[in-house]
Specification:
2 copies of one chain form a homodimer. Chain A has 14 helices and 8 strands. Chain A has 297 residues and is α/β, with parallel strands linked by helices. The mean pLDDT of chain A is 96.
Chain lengths: 297, 297
């Protein structure tokens, strides 16, 4: 079961860090940026950057998260770079989280599920290990993703409490029944997948931002079976101290993403972008392990 | 202002119909389907189908809605067919709604906004007239879309009350302050864009399903400035009688999408898929106009 395998790898590496490949063109170092003259060369440069980052961190981190918006901005060639990045990361033994936050009614959701979770019918596709999903449409917008995930042994992270400053505007609203909107969302997720692996987590997890420690503690306590994808560490203001509430007494419960703090580490540290990324990952691993208090699984 | 221009076109054609290009491979007629052997030929066949549908309806309908999930299923080649479809429809004078339901935190939302609303930096892109958006992340996930829409004179439709059977599971929940979740969402949309065109509608509209007439009436009355994208007519069970609540006394207020009822009309009516699509559009126009009671704008 995929969540078990991801946790096995986190434990083997003693590292719950996920490297976010939100690769904007302007993040590239000057020499690589200078090779860009059209969509095709832009996509090539972005893939080269990602490949070098992946090579630098593949023995240290369990997963990468590829944020598709940055690739869509470059049109079909950008999506080709997305596909190549996903496939290269998988070849290097990394778990790949497609961060696409897809959502739609059932018939259409099943198409997205096929696009991101199934093996493609023809040639290069977007087949990843995990997909982020937005559940605003209700369970019939989630079930096609859950069914495809089960069929192909992949996983999902449904947006519950996001890391952005205004996430509370809708998500923290209090319902007449005493729950918050994000708890209603988490209830929907928890009721859509009651199959747990050896560590007690389901394949359908939750996105819970590092920037909201109180809500994270509530969600961790209330939903012991939900594994978290935790964005917001670093550039968005989340710290290891703030996100430790996402983990249980075993030190398990989530994987922590960092994008800009790793991709742009070279601008603060100097040296090559890949060496700087590796050094940033090592720092982050130490930081997270100290806050979580190590593993007791 | 784009919402004005869309309404001008609806009035000129006396037709609030939007043709949904949710083109699944299995919707293609046998002869076209037989040309498919890989992702490239699949994308070519889908574009050919779309082009013939567009040619058949371009003088009768104001807009097409292109549902990106069906193109993502085919990987980068599918996205190339999406791009070609969007651009061909615009060349034929149609307004194009990219139905992608994108959503993310601010920094990433601005990438999606650029991908779907701005002119592309290089070559072929996804630049459409309108984009569907999911507002679960709060206003800082909506504002980058609103800003890009204003900059490039494009429009948005934010999911408020969707057409699927289980949409109420989250959207209809009652808040402690007496609103429903979908009303809280609509309030967020209405407060994010207070600039109205000559017909009194903002460029940031709402998705309101044809299948929920009571909620549609509430939303229409409470938010007179929101223009609606109305899915759910036809195959999903929505009728003209059910969706007439989406329109105001002038007969204005929304555009009604139909995908399968038009793309697959040839299987019921016989003849070519494009002639059947044109006939289906004509029937739908009459059906909608009778229910709305004509235009008094």
């Amino acid at each position: 079961m995929i969540t078990d395998r991801l946790i096995d790898r986190i434990l083997a590496l003693e590292n719950p860090t996920c490297v976010g490949l939100d690769t904007a063109l302007e993040y590239l170092p000057e020499a690589l940026f200078a090779t860009v003259s059209d969509a095709r060369s832009a996509a090539e440069a972005i893939f080269t950057f990602n490949r070098n980052i992946i090579d630098a961190v593949a023995d240290m981190v369990p997963a990468v998260k590829v944020q598709i918006a940055y690739y869509e901005e470059l049109g079909p060639w950008g999506l080709s770079a997305f596909s190549r990045t996903v496939n290269y990361a998988k070849e290097q033994g990394l778990f790949v989280i497609a961060d696409a936050k897809r959502n739609d009614i059932g018939a259409t959701a099943s198409r997205y599920a096929k696009a991101f979770l199934a093996e493609p019918s023809f040639g290069e596709g977007f087949s990843s290990d995990f997909l982020t999903v937005n559940g605003y449409l209700g369970t019939d917008g989630l079930i096609p993703f859950a069914e495809e995930a089960k069929r192909s042994d992949r996983g999902l992270f449904v947006l519950v409490k996001t890391s952005n400053p205004s996430s509370g505007e809708l998500q923290d609203l209090l319902l007449a029944d005493g729950r918050t909107v994000y708890e209603a969302m988490a209830d929907m997720v928890a009721s859509s997948d009651a199959e747990y692996g050896k560590y007690g987590f389901s394949r359908m997890g939750a996105v819970v931002g590092a920037t909201h420690p109180d809500q994270a503690a509530r969600i961790r306590a209330r939903y012991p079976h939900l594994f978290f994808l935790i964005p917001g560490y670093g550039a968005q203001g989340g710290s290891a101290e703030m996100l430790k509430n996402c983990f249980d007494g075993r030190g398990l419960g989530g994987i922590v993403n960092n994008s800009r703090g790793i991709l742009l580490a070279y601008r603060k540290r100097g040296g090559t972008y890949y060496d700087a990324a590796r050094a940033a990952v090592l720092d982050m691993k130490r930081d997270l392990l100290a806050a979580i208090g190590g593993y007791h699984a």
